[in-house]
Structures are given as C-alpha cells and as structure tokens.
Design goal:
Layout (H helix, E strand, L loop, with lengths): L1 E9 L2 E7 L4 E5 L6 H12 L14 E9 L4 H9 L7 E9 L4 E5 L2 E3 L1 H11 E4 L1 H7 L5 H8 L4 H21 L4 H21 L5 H29 L8 H13 L6 H30 L4 H20 L4 H19 L1 H47 L6 E13 L2 E10 L7 E2 H4 L2 H18 L4 E5 L7 H15 L3 E5 L3 H5 L3 E10 L2 E8 L2 H11 L6 H18 L1
Parallel strand pairs: 3-13, 3-14, 8-12, 12-13
Antiparallel strand pairs: 1-2, 1-4, 4-5, 5-6, 6-7, 9-10, 10-11, 14-15
Length: 557
C-alpha cells in the first residue's frame, strides 16, 4: 500500500505531501480542480511515459516520491531481491524529470531503469482509467482480459515454438525462395562465375595496363625525344661522342696531374662525368626498347583493358571486389547445390513445430473457454449487485487462420444489459454507465484472483448516480477490505464511504494558479458530501450528507 506521497512541481501542484491509510481513500473536487493531475503524478511515479509538459511552469524539474509498505508481499519482495534492491518491508520509489529531458528513477536509493520499475509497480498497483476503458471497446484487446484472469501456461511454450519457426524461416530465406527461384539464382551465379574465371583476374593488372596505355598515347613524342638525346650522346658523322670528348680531355691532363693536385681532382671528375654520360646513353636505349610496340600488342592491351573495365563495372568497381565476389559466388553455388537436402530437413522441422503449435493452441483455447465460463458467471453476479440484474455476458470464440503469440483465438464479449434483449457485440451496445460498472465488476473479479495491494479508480462512477451509485460505493468498500483503494469521484454516495477524504481545489496564489489538496476532517467531509450531492449550504444539504454518512457507517460496521 502507498503510505506517503510527495509531489513537487507537477503541473499545477507546487509541493504537497500526503499520508494515506490502508482502506478507502476518496479524492473529490470541482471539475477542473486538478483531480486527474494527482492521478497522473502517481502514474508517472509507477512508470508512465515521462513528458516535459508535466513540469510546473517556470521550474526546471518535477519529482514524485512514494513510500510503499510491502509487508507480507512476498512476490514484490522477491522481485526487488532479483533486481538487487534491498528492502525492509518498505519501498521508497522516487522519479525525477528535468527540463532538459533527463530522467532518474530510484528504488530504496538504487538507480534503476523504467523497465525494472514496471516489473515492481505492476505488482504494487492496479489502475483503472480511460486507457482501460478504451481497451474494452477494442475487440483485439478482449483476449487480454481473459488471459489476465488466468493465463494459459501453454502460451510460454507457444512463444518458444513461434521463435523456432521464425529461425527456420530465416534459414529458408537464405536459400532464395522456392526451387525454381533457387535454380534461377544458381544459373545466374554460374554465368557470372564463368565470366570471372575466364577473365583470369590478377591484382594490380589494371594499373599495369594503365601505364602501357599512357606509353601508347605518347610513343611518337617519346621515341623522337630519346633518339635525339642519344644522338647527341653517341658518335655521329659530324662530331664525336660526348663520352669520347671527355675521354680525350682527361687524356690530355694525365701527363701533368703529378705537378698539381688540383689537376688530379679535375681529372677524376672528368672520368666520373664520362662514365655517367655513358650510363645515361645506355639507359635511354633501354627505355627506347620499351617503346618498341607493335600494332597487335596495342590492340591486345586495349582489348584487355575493356575486359577489366567491364568486370569492375559489374562487380564492385575494382579488381579486389571482383575477386571477392568470385569467392562468394563459388560458396553460394556450392550452398545451393546442397540446398535441397537442407531445405527438406528444415521444412520437416517447421511442419512438426507447426503441428505442435496448433496442438498447443487447442489446449490454450480449452483453458480459455473454461476461464471464460468462470468470468461470465462472476461478472454477471457482480453486475447484479451493481444494479444490472438482467445482464448477460458470453465470450465468443472464433479460430483464426494462423496462430500468433496469443494463440489462434479471436475473442469478443457479447453483452446484453436488459431482459429480453439478445446478446450483441459489447463494443456496439454498452453505454458509459454500463461500461463503468462492467469494468468495476471485472476489477472485483480480478482482485479475488490476483492479490494487488493497491487499486486506483479514476472516475469509475462516470455516467451513474442514485442507487446505482450507492451500489458502486458498496463495491468499493468491499474491495477496500482486501486492498488499499484510491478513487476519484463526483458521487456523494462514494464520498460518504471514505475512510479518508481529500478535497482538491484550484487556488490563485499571487500571480499564479496552484492545485491545493486538503485532508478533510469530519465536518469538512460532511460539507464536501453535501456539495457532491448538489447543495453547498443549508441545513437540508448537511442533513442529507449526514444521512449518507450514517448509511455508509452502518454498511461498514
């Protein structure tokens, strides 16, 4: 149960701390006073989506703290232990949201994430609000109401089977569809592999060809230049060679170098120059040989260049990527050649799993129908106590073509609220007041099956009043004997049943508006009951409020 709640900077709430008892707690106030704000704060505390619009205007954070007593709540204590949260029969949950969107959640000082928080709070609190109201009007959600009562254990096995089938489907997808599709893929791969094998690709070959093509493009200019250069360096009719001239010059000095060291150095340099010139001449002749191309060789280079260009265009843009694709194609062809046996094995496994899945679905349906029979009887009994003595409820089952994680059942509530009226789809015939009572009946049935220490009803009395409202109030008292109940109401009959009553008002404080929450004493509670009944002042209104309170006390005694 929630023993203490502190709310800071949440919407119109500045800073309020509330202490709660363990029975029936009523929240009331004028329309627009902020009753839903307090419920939203509790929802935020237990794991609802964080929204920066929750922050009070002009503040940079909002924070909600709740103290929960969990004495004898073994399942909650065990879950906390699993999450590494120590507790001494008390949980202090704190959730903070800053203006820059940062969120922090702590339980007993331990920092946790939202998923971990929900694992705890789903065991702590059950809330009925507009969301569940809408769920009842969604046929697709009806099956979740049945499973919430008592979930078929076979669903866990069905989930495992569906996961295994998905893994098999993923493997089958790797084979490329049906047999004809695989054969087409194999044929295409073989054609590509033949093209790549015939190309006899070599790393770096395209770079070598590029170099040759450059030479072809400049061959005439290069040959003329080399011939001219070697002509100057070689002997010809008009003059001797440069190396010969250097030789003769050095020979002239050789007879006198002993007389002067400088001449000896110069002689050495002349010899070095002669050797270098001769080496350059020989190198130019070697380069010239490289430019000795035939037209046939030129054509071969161009043809090969076109082959490589086409290969690179089709297989990734480079020789490296083409070679990599070649390896991949070889493996894929080998894979496809051996695929039929593997496919047959996988298909047989899938068929077996599918058969097991349908068998589980039949077992799940059997259990759901048994549960539905109990739910039908119990809800009708509760509706009778809530002023609907002629209500009828049947859960209709239809088998779906394929099974999913929820089985192979399409479930729909068929409902009639009045004698003589046939059963029709609940989503089409139920009124607002009937919806409130139906959900209260369902929650009552659920509370007898699953023990939740705290239940919150946000305007469960929508669309009802009079004796029906009193019947709803009595049901609230019944539930509060097993769990702490917080209810937002506009009915005087529910207000009269309160063990603890808070009035929510909107007040103007200087230049801003705040939501003020006040715990009412006996006199204040009577005044609020009178207001809920439609009268603010006067002896008659107070007397009527006292009568309602006396009736409530008599019922609860």
């Amino acid at each position: 149960m929630l023993t203490r709640l502190r709310v800071q900077n949440f919407a119109l709430i500045e800073d309020v701390t509330l202490n709660f008892n363990d029975r029936l707690i009523v929240l009331s106030g004028e329309t627009g006073s902020g009753k839903s704000i307090l419920i939203n704060a509790i929802n935020f505390l237990i794991g609802d989506r964080a929204d920066k619009t929750f922050l009070r205007y002009g503040t940079n954070f909002t924070q909600v703290d709740g103290v929960f007593k969990v004495t004898d709540q073994k399942e909650i204590i065990a879950e906390c232990n699993n999450l590494g949260i120590e507790n001494d029969e008390e949980l202090i949950i704190s959730r903070k949201l800053t203006a820059d969107g940062k969120s922090e959640i702590r339980v007993n000082g331990v920092l946790i994430n939202l998923c971990m928080l929900k694992r705890i709070t789903t065991l702590l609190v059950d809330i009925y609000g507009q969301h569940q109201h809408q769920s009842l009007l969604d046929i697709e959600k009806h099956i979740s109401f049945i499973d919430a009562y008592r979930e078929p254990p076979q669903l866990f096995e069905l989930h495992k089977i569906i996961d295994e089938i998905k893994q098999i489907d993923d493997k089958l997808q790797m084979f490329g569809g049906d047999a004809s599709a695989r054969e087409r893929e194999k044929g295409m791969l073989e054609f590509e592999l033949k093209e790549l094998n015939e190309a006899e690709l070599q790393l770096g070959e395209d770079a070598e060809l590029e170099e040759k093509r450059k030479k072809f493009a400049n061959v005439q200019r290069v040959v003329e230049a080399i011939n001219g250069a070697t002509g100057y360096l070689s002997e010809n009719e008009n003059s001797g060679s440069i190396s010969g001239a250097l030789y003769n010059a050095n020979k002239m000095l050789s007879g006198v170098i002993v007389t002067d060291n400088k001449l000896n150095d110069l002689s050495t340099r002349l010899e070095s120059a002669r050797i270098e010139v001769e080496d350059i001449r020989e190198s130019l002749e070697q380069v010239l040989e490289e430019y000795d191309f035939s037209e046939n060789e030129r054509e071969q280079v161009e043809d090969r260049w076109e082959v490589l260009k086409n290969i690179k265009r089709k297989y990734g843009g480079s020789i490296e990527s083409a070679l990599e694709y070649q390896k991949t194609a070889e493996k894929k062809i080998d894979f496809l050649c051996n695929s039929e046996e593997q496919i047959n094995q996988l298909t047989s496994q899938k068929d077996l799993l599918t058969k097991q899945g349908w068998e589980l679905c039949n077992e799940i349906r059997k259990i759901r129908k048994q549960n539905s029979s109990e739910i039908e009887q119990k809800i009708v009994k509760e509706l009778t106590q809530l002023g609907m003595p002629n209500a009828k409820l049947i859960v209709d089952f239809q088998e779906t073509e394929h099974f999913t994680l929820s089985g192979a059942d399409k479930v729909e509530f068929m409902f009639s609220a009045n004698a003589g009226e046939p059963l029709k789809p609940l989503v089409k015939v139920i009124s607002g007041g009937e919806m409130s009572r139906f959900m209260l009946a369902f929650k009552t049935v659920m509370s007898n099956v699953h023990s939740v220490p705290m239940m919150i009803f946000d305007e469960i009395d929508s669309g009802i009043g009079g004796e029906v409202g009193f019947a709803v109030a009595c049901k609230m008292v019944e539930i509060s004997k097993k769990a702490q109940v917080i209810v937002v109401t506009h009915l005087a009959s529910i207000g009269a049943m309160a063990d603890q009553h808070f009035q929510i008002e909107k007040k103007k404080n200087n230049d801003h508006t705040v939501t003020q929450i006040t715990e009412l004493n006996t006199e204040q509670q009577l005044n609020e009951i009178a207001r809920l009944a439609g009268g603010y002042n006067g002896d008659f209104a107070t007397e009527y409020a006292q009568q309602l309170k006396n009736r409530a006390n008599q019922l609860k005694s």
